[in-house]
Amino acid sequence: MATEVQTLLPILNDRVRIESDFDEALLQNGLGPLLRGETATLQVNVGKRCNQACHHCHVEAGPKRTEIMPRHVAERVLKILAQSPSAQTVDMTGGAPELNPNFRFLVTESRRLGRHVIDRCNLTVLYEPGMEDLAEFLADNEVEIIASLPCYTPANVDRQRGRWVFEKSVDALRELNRLGYGLPNSPRILNLVYNPLGASLPPPQERLELDYKRELRSQYGIEFHRLYTLTNMPIKRFAEFLDQNGRYGEYMRLLVNHFNPDTVSGLMCRSLASVGWDGRLYDCDFNQMLEIPLGAGWKTIWDIESLTDLSNERISTASHCFGCAAGAGSSCGGALR
User: What number is the average pLDDT over the span 268-292?
Assistant: First the structure.
């Protein structure tokens, strides 16, 4: 059940990030400090290059970004993975991760190590030059696809992501269905991601999933497994949007006043490690974009032998963490409650 943290509201009128406000909320609820457990998921952000430039993007990804994980970093990531038996899932993200020339190398080698691989796909990347066989590659390697589709109507998707994005996304989903992705009882997992179009919390995940399935099936003949709802993080491009519209303080108050202590046990930073394109390590992808180091201080993949070395370390927090703990909670795997 959400609890109000009224004492924190005044500091949120200031645009400057306050490092201690989320920690204060944890302490008020007897939940701090926040510590890492064993790393179950290694999230690999292979760079910021993307074929889209979405309004809500916390990475500020786009076609002109040049940050790309090079081969020697990818090789070290795989070496760390091989020595980290608790990390059974590799979560590939970006940008559009498929545009990195080492994407397929990371996928095939992670699968050779017996790890489950997730590709966070924007769907339209399937139609980029050189990606003609991408869908078949993902299917052949049994890669789970988590695909962005912020709404089931063309107008809302194109408003957030750009003209004709919805049409291309529907074509991509049909192609994935043809390969067995998203079909009932199929091992080729296809999950979709919803995020609000503006400064609001997502609706209940299970109810919205039913709406998505009904509309996509009836209108386009599309099937998928699960829908994940994600809260827009008040950082980077979305934070700029809030600032420009004078709504940053309002949105932060919304998140703070819907702080839900029941979400804290499931926060993804407790069981996930995030590695950036340059090999630096972070507690989550959001901290990575803000360049907030691990709670234990700056570390790279060359400073550790295994992800076990990060266990029981304190997690770095800041005001944006309220986005993961508001209402039903939000993580890369959807709602927490």
Answer: 95
Does residue 33 lie in a domain region?
yes
Q: In the numeric block, which tokens belong to residue 61?
A: 């990804």
User: What does the alpha-carbon distance between residue 22 and residue 30 come to, in Å, rounded to a whole number?
Assistant: 12
Pairing of strands 272-275, 281-282: antiparallel
The whole-angstrom separation of Cα 279 and Cα 322 is: 27
Q: How many CB atoms lie within 10 A of CB 30?
A: 7
For 49-75, the pLDDT digits (tens) are 887 766 556 666 677 888 899 999 999
Count: domains in the chain: 1
CA pair distance 258, 291, nearest whole angstrom: 26
Residue 206, domain extent: 6-323
- Residue-level pLDDT at 184: 94
179 within some domain: yes
Q: What is the pLDDT of residue 61?
A: 64
- Structural domain includes residue 125: yes
Instruction: Report the CATH number that the domain containing residue 277 is assigned in CATH.
Output: 3.20.20
Where is average pLDDT lowest: 157-166, 181-190, 264-273, 313-322?
Answer: 157-166
Q: How many CB atoms lie within 10 A of CB 44?
A: 30
The tokens describing 337, both together, are 């409650």
> Residue 314: inside a domain, yes or no?
yes
**Mean pLDDT, residues 284-289 taken together:** 92
